[in-house]
Write a structure and sequence with these properties.
With about 80 residues, this protein is an all-alpha fold. It has 2 helices and no strands.
């Protein structure tokens, strides 16, 4: 699966899940209730989805820059020498 195939909504849901897991792991004394994605307010979901979209755009941009740089350089042993 490529980055372009990942939906921002699914990525936001995963962010939420792992954030909940990390918070409950950090705070052993008081066990917070794990809020299911369906229970998250629409405003919070929108905020998480916007963050996920920005994350995907940055990842795509970074991957594109790396591919652009690779295009101009030959792999070792493949360079043509001479005119």
């Amino acid at each position: 699966m490529s980055i372009q195939e990942v939906s921002a909504e699914k990525l936001a849901e995963l962010f939420h899940h792992y954030r909940q897991a990390l918070e409950s792991d950090r705070d052993h004394a008081s066990k917070p209730t794990v809020e299911e994605w369906e229970q998250v307010s629409q405003g919070e979901k929108d905020r998480l989805i916007a963050a996920a979209r920005l994350t995907l755009l940055e990842l795509i941009s970074t991957a594109t820059e790396v591919e652009d740089r690779k295009r101009y350089f030959a792999k070792p042993g493949e360079a043509e020498w001479g005119c």
